[in-house]
Amino acid sequence: MYDYTQSLIRSETSRGKVRQQTDITLRGQVWTLLPDVFSPADSKSSLAHLGLLEFPVGGAFLEVGSGIGLIAVSAGLAGCRAVWATDLNAAAVKNTALNAERFGVADRMTCVQGDLFEGLHEAPLFDVVYWHSNNVWAPPEIDINVHELAYVDPGYEAHQRYFREAQRHVVPGGRVLIALSSRAGRAELAQLAAAERQRLITVDSAVVEEPEGPVVYELLEVVPL
Ligand SMILES: C[S@@+](CC[C@H](N)C(=O)[O-])C[C@H]1O[C@@H](n2cnc3c(N)ncnc32)[C@H](O)[C@@H]1O
Q1: 69 lines ligand 1 (CB under 6 A)
Q2: 208-219: pLDDT as tens digits
Q3: What is the third-level CATH fold of 4-224?
Q4: Both ends of the chain: CA-CA distance in Å?
Q5: Domain-by-domain residue ranges, the chain?
Q6: What is the pLDDT along the chain (225 residues), one digit of tens a residue?
Q7: What's the chain's Rg over C-alpha atoms?
Q8: Which CDD domains match (predicted)?
Q9: Which ligand 1 atom is at minimum distance from the Cα of 116?
Q10: Residues 93/154, Cβ–Cβ less than 8 Å
């Protein structure tokens, strides 16, 4: 299993750089970043996963764990009719709303705080439900802050709930997706999915050079058994 303390160090390094609202540049576009929110400027994962994703143009898209809103806002810009973005971290919800305004897609976006699907009482069913997850395993009893929770999932408890609950939020024929990296415990996640009568199927992947060596970023579909 990947050494989760490496992810906690990456979180602390990234978090320590941001004391107030700031701008970051991603592929030539300027985005707002708030303190305590996962920064796509400090991880190659967000842009790599964005590159693997096809949005349901004209349809409804849900992003779980939206962070600064890079993917949810991109869904709005790509032509999704309705985009919902949710995050456990209240600062991330505010950050996504700020970027929705900044990029002119606030009219088609709804940003809510909640643990996975908790804040979605008024939501429609979605064509695509997506989570670029905190897919590094950490011990269940670990005491971590909200920024670290963007990197690691203690005991994979949230992943198990995602595998249990996500299908309830898609239209018939809709897709549940999850974006993982090679730092994730793939065998453990496949087992947790199977326990919820789901399996994980690779849709696409990309290899990115990182200081630790090549990292594989992978888009998977969660499909009922
Ligand atoms: C790896 S970051 C991805 C952020 C953003 N989507 C991006 O691509 O830059 C994972 C995100 O999931 C959120 N998250 C972690 N656990 C969650 C949960 N149980 N419910 C909702 N969001 C969660 C974190 O706060 C974080 O914003």
Answers
A1: no
A2: 999 889 999 999
A3: Rossmann fold (3.40.50)
A4: 26
A5: 4-224
A6: 899 999 999 999 999 999 999 999 999 999 999 999 999 999 999 999 999 999 999 999 999 999 999 999 999 999 999 999 999 999 999 999 999 999 999 999 999 999 999 999 999 999 999 999 999 999 999 999 999 999 999 999 999 999 999 999 999 999 999 999 999 999 999 999 999 999 999 999 999 999 889 999 999 999 999
A7: 16
A8: AdoMet_MTases
A9: 20
A10: no
Task: Count the alpha carbons within 13 Å of 81 in the hemisphere toward its beta carbon.
Answer: 8
117 CB near ligand 1 (under 6 Å): no
Q: Is the CB of 39 under 6 A from ligand 1?
A: no
Q: Which two tokens stand for residue 87?
A: 């995050």
Identify which of 29, 66, 94 to mutate to test ligand 1's pocket (most ligand atoms within 8 A of the CB). 66
* CB of residue 158 inside a 6 A radius of ligand 1: yes
What residue type is assigned to position 198 of the chain? Q
Whether the CB of 60 sits within 6 Å of ligand 1: no
- Going from the Cα of 134 to the center of ligand 1, the distance in angstroms, rounded, reads 6
189 vs 141: CA distance, rounded Å: 18
* CA 34 – ligand 1 centroid, Å: 14
